[in-house]
Design goal:
By secondary structure, this protein is α+β, with helices and mostly antiparallel strands. It has four helices and three strands. A three-stranded mixed β-sheet has the order 1-2-3.
Amino acid sequence: MKEIQLKEAKAKFSHVVDEAVAGEAAVITRHGRKEAVIISYSEYERLSRVPSLGWLLTNSPLEEGDLRKRQPSKALRKPVF
């Protein structure tokens, strides 16, 4: 995925969109920080249909005993009050 500065993305917006539609996503940077991503609408739709982890967990076909029991975690440090 290529990176492009916001100023350049504004100047070449049609080209950036055409590349996204062709499958070449772009990260938009501002002052050296990654701020946004340009992707095609079809890629956005595909990604938006990915189920959330919460949905996957609540709708999993697991039954009692499918997962082994976890041991309680040990505190790394004594709490300071």
